[in-house]
Amino acid sequence: MSQSYNRGLVEDFGRWREFSAGMWAWVFHKFTGWVLVGYLFTHIAVLSTALQSPEAYTTTIQSLESLLIVRLLEVGLLAVSVFHILNGLRLLFVDLGVGISGQDQSFYASLILTGAIVIASVPTFLAGVFG
Amino acid sequence: MAEHYSSFKRGGRRWLWQRITAAFLVVVLAFHFFLLHFVHHADEVTFAMSQGRMQELTYFSLMVLFLVTATFHGVNGVYNALINQGLSGTRRKATKVVLGVASIVLIVQGVRTAIAWAGGIPI
User: Fold this and answer.
1) Structural domain tally of chain A?
2) Overall pTM surpassing 0.90 (yes/no)
3) Residue A8: what pLDDT?
4) What does the alpha-carbon distance between residue B7 and residue A91 come to, in Å, rounded to a whole number?
5) In this predicted structure, what is the pLDDT of residue A15?
6) What Gene Ontology molecular function terms does this protein carry (chain B) (predicted)?
7) Could you tell me if residue A67 is inside a domain?
8) Does residue B23 belong to the interface with chain A, where contact is any CB pair within 8 Å?
């Protein structure tokens, strides 16, 4: 017989100290999802400068990329994307019934791998911004 | 109460399509990041380079499919998250219409931009 646990509502963020790994995974997946869908609309808006003229597009992108804050936000975007991808893969497997017993560990692995990939990518993402 | 933390109704089609688009997006989003940040660098972007890529039918169609699946996955995710938070009735219907219109605007704008880069559909 399968066990069931009453962990209460994950939407009740006030009790975050009691959250299990799976509940954190759910919260992080939601948060990163909101960021990514917001970014998608912003991304298309910026790329749309190509409709104005080739020069407007090139100037816009190069001006944005010369700003340190934009580069740092891009590192943040990478972190959010990598976590959403890795945790998304974890969800696909869990939904297929693969690795359910190890789902806490796979969440921790997603976090660690995200951190490692992001740290390793920082030099590439900041290249050229300091002059 | 047995655990069932999901934004989706069990067995629903919105859940299935969210998973199908996810499987595609995992690969294409990783490719997109890798190509535009590691193979090429973001500060080297010019209209001519984007144009060169977009004039290839394979790349053009992959990017249009990427836009459509990412829009669906993102907007469907938001819609289901809101339902999960208790959205119902007229507000749910209104949200569905607003998100549907936003998706269409985003896709149309994205495809127009892709066509501007490629100088037409590259067939």
Assistant:
1) 1
2) no
3) 62
4) 13
5) 75
6) metal ion binding; succinate dehydrogenase (quinone) activity
7) yes
8) yes
Mean of pLDDT values over B71-75: 97
B92 near A CB under 8 A: no
Tens-place pLDDT, residues B28-62: 999 999 999 999 988 788 999 999 999 999 999 99
Instruction: Answer whether residue A55 is part of any domain.
Output: yes
Shortest Cα distance from A63 to chain B (angstroms)? 9
Task: Tell me whether residue A116 is in a domain.
Answer: yes
At residue A115's C-alpha, the angle toward residues A109 and A118, to 5°, is: 135
Report the 10 Å Cβ neighbour count for A56. Answer: 14
User: What percentage of chain B exceeds 90 in pLDDT?
Assistant: 77
B25, B26, B47 member nearest A57 (Cβ): B47
Q: CB distance from A76 to chain B under 8 Å? A: no
Interface test with A, best of B4, B50, B53, B80 (most A CBs within 10 A): B50
Listed in sequence order, the residues at least 6 apart from A20 whose beta carbon sits closer than 8 Å to its beta carbon are: A7, A104
Q: What sign has the CA pseudo-torsion B79, A44, B121, B26?
A: negative
B13-118 adopts what CATH topology? 3 helical TM bundles of succinate and fumarate reductases (1.20.1300)
Please indicate if any CB of chain A lies within 8 Å of the CB of B117: yes
- pLDDT of A42 > 60? The answer is yes
Q: Does a structural domain hold residue A119?
A: yes
